[in-house]
């Protein structure tokens, strides 16, 4: 076969790693990938995503994709679980398989000197997993232990209750790990079906960073993915959000309550997304100086930390936050959160707040690109969000372009204090 | 660094160890400075490490080291309360801090051309902190909420706190870093300032700068900002008490309705890395990796998680040796449904006895050795991680030489050393903790 590798686009993404650019690579068989070449250290990081993830589960087989993902590294081809682990470790390689709600993530880290062998091993795992019955039972036991712990973890209880009440019969309503009943009922055939549904070439995204050329990467991608089916299962439908404003209490014996709160959010491709992103940064983003951290922690000492985030999923959008506080302070905290929500929706932000948030977000963006694995993760995420390859170099300009008027308009559009729903796990006091 | 690696097809074993570009010097006022160069991105991390941790606290004042860490983000003679973090954020940077038994550390990560301002502010709060009574009281509420969230709400964390309290019979490693609640409730502004004045000075700190900087640049800036600070001649020597001979193993049980499955953890008192003598620590690290460092191939996993009737759902082992005075070696076992804790515990003891008697599998040993060697290459991809590694090691009393030779010490460990290390796991020097769901409470 002719080598059809193009380094068509050579863009200076950012003043990130000097002299390094994101290259658009197409493998000989036609699979696209983004690459940052960096020969400083003799290894590479590869990130692969298969869109779909645990949301592809047949509702009656909830947890199948999760269990399958946990089994990929538990034996493939001639290697049983221990043989596979020994082969990987003997090469000092890292191969990880992670299930998410909307994707399955595969990460590979390999030294240059034995990269070809690592690639063969990864291909073996993806295309010839054994799913031995003893491995199925062993990993099932681990999943069940996790489910039992989740059932008693207040943070997880809160998140699950919120999702259940928000999303009705959509897969988002339940944990991708499944339930004790559904996981106990899964068979090897269910695992094989989940594998065929979830790992297919029609939904794959690839990014690589490190000691590899575009030509080498093209060949590598084809070797990694060779033998996977062309198509997988159809993606789920849109999830309709059903929660109304209010408070749900889940009784839990603890001196502190865990609170998850939120309402609907905004799509990642909405023209107002950047204004919404800035708005969240000011209200409850990760910084110490956010309005909620200032009001709830700094001024009143009511919590160790409070944060909010826009959560644009593939089939729904949420705006979520969480915090913990003493049971006796729950009423006060909820009133405070509602009033901060209302204040921002009504009055918008100040010019100084907007300027500070812009400086922070534009200044901190390059700091994310700080290791091979981190960059590969960012690049594969951009592709899944359908962003252009020059996104990294235009993103800050989009943030700078947001005006105070945009902020006021978008605050009124996306913040709905009356729609806020609070799930409180604990024994709260002071609730109306 | 790059020059050393131009030949990309060198065999793994010929790669130089500890190849990062590191320079160190000490200012006249005693501030130790370490510069780790990484010019791949125009980013820099500043970390300042104080040789003051919770194990240096006075009896009755547990939590003061961590409380002061929080208060360091309040005002100084030049900065308003909160201005430090606001300034970092306004530069697009991130900042935070953390406290351990042996140190308190503060860091900022910013674009490389903002290092100047970061150094100015960090130097300023080394001696210029000013605390308002009201702010101190509000922040005390915050650390109490932190304790509630991280410890009291989590029976697993409560039990681990109890394990350390039982493992250390005399040393302050047994006191929680965040503090006992009843002592935290009494911490005052005066306590915070006493602690600050006693420990925060250039001659009690190590500055680590990692990223797109040169040693000359850092030296000039450090002289400018940290240079004028007066050393504190009254910095107390870190005289730590020793554990008495431990004569009896300790066994703890916690039953709690929030615990979902029974589990057993055991921690042993073992040696830590010592300056000039890291061989035992290196052997303990291998032992932990071989015993329970891999969920599939470790000794515990192979024996208990595989086969027709697996005894355990999950097993693991770890070694913590980067401490000033004592290390800990830990094991965790989650039995399969219907299997008694006593059964997995007996298996653990039999497997340890087996290692002590017959040694370890040479092939498994070689795989760990290869992974540790490759780990040195992967570590170079993360200058933040290197900054943390240098700061921590230097603050607990290891030297630059100790850090430099550590990879070599790890490569020189033999299977016989690992076999000998198994004898260090003495049940008389251990705490075994059983976590039980309430319905199974005995």
UniProtKB/TrEMBL annotation, chain A:
InterPro entries assigned to the protein according to its UniProt record, in alphabetical order: Metalloenz_LuxS/M16, MPP/UQCRC_Complex, Pept_M16_N, Peptidase_M16_C
Gene Ontology MF, one: metal ion binding
Q: Provide the alphabetized UniProt keywords.
A: Signal
One Pfam family name is Peptidase_M16_C
Q: Where is the Peptidase M16 N-terminal domain?
A: 35-173
Q: Which domain of life is it from?
A: Bacteria
Signal peptide segment: 1-18
- Peptidase M16 C-terminal domain mapped to chain residues: 186-360
Q: What is this protein called?
A: Peptidase M16
Automatic annotation (TrEMBL), chain B:
Q: Which InterPro entries match?
A: Metalloenz_LuxS/M16, MPP/UQCRC_Complex, Pept_M16_N, Pept_M16_Zn_BS, Peptidase_M16_C
Q: Name one GO molecular function term.
A: metalloendopeptidase activity
Q: Where is the Peptidase M16 N-terminal domain?
A: 33-178
**Domain Peptidase M16 C-terminal, chain residue ranges per copy:** 187-372
Q: Which UniProt keywords apply?
A: Hydrolase, Metalloprotease, Protease, Signal
Q: For this chain's UniProt record, which GO biological process terms are given? A: proteolysis
N-terminal signal peptide? 1-19
> PROSITE patterns this protein is in?
INSULINASE
List, separated by semicolons, the cofactors it needs. Answer: Zn(2+)
- Hey, which family's this protein in? Belongs to the peptidase M16 family.
PANTHER family this protein is in? METALLOPROTEASE, MITOCHONDRIAL-PROCESSING PEPTIDASE SUBUNIT ALPHA
Q: What is this protein called?
A: Peptidase M16
Upper classification of the source organism reads: Bacteria, Pseudomonadati, Pseudomonadota, Alphaproteobacteria, Rhodobacterales
